[in-house]
Prior knowledge:
By secondary structure, the protein is an alpha/beta fold. The chain has helices at 2-6, 8-16, 23-33, 51-60, 90-100, 120-141, 158-168, and strands at residues 41-45, 65-70, 80-84, 105-110, 142-153, 169-175, 186-194. The protein has a single domain, classed as Vaccinia Virus protein VP39 (Rossmann fold). Helix 6 packs parallel to helix 7. The longest helix is centred in the middle third of the chain and has 22 residues, at 120-141. The protein is globular, with a radius of gyration of 16 Å.
Amino acid sequence: MQAHVRDPYVQQAKKSGYRSRAAFKLIEIAARDRLLRSGMAVVDLGAAPGSWSQVLAERVGPAGRVVAVDLLDVAPISGLTVIRGDFREAAVLGQVEAALGGVRLDLVVSDMAPNLSGVSATDQARSVHLCELALDFAQAHLKPEGAFLVKVFQGAGYSGFLAAMRSAFVSVASRKPGASRGRSSEMYLLGRRLKPASG
């Protein structure tokens, strides 16, 4: 707890008005990869508590569109449409698509992690499954030149998911932002430009 309180990213998040230190992971990746610009259409999967959505709404501005989806509540953010529910369910997916008004996405982001059971093999499998679901969503909703940023944990299933990313996107890069805790196995994969669907 003490380490958390002293964490410079936690302190900076409080100072900047972000809901969690995770905001700085997205800020760093977005700056490095020129990921965000005014007017973009973006979906934030697993958005709660909303720090990534805050960054997205700031960067895409009033000309853009940001839709946040989570099973948990996300407190209102200016310029953000919040949909509470499971994006795998048809009714929730319908709400997302209605909020987008038929617009294809410039960017899909996913900082999702499963509820931890404490059994590492189970938790890793659940995490990879969430990544696969987010990838499916991205492939179905991105513009051809769109991008997909997803949090992954290194371990069982990681290499298979990396291969799925490489088969879906022309370019795939891995990122470990400074705000990721050193001891964490988390990293981010950034896919850009969808490959045409085969068959």
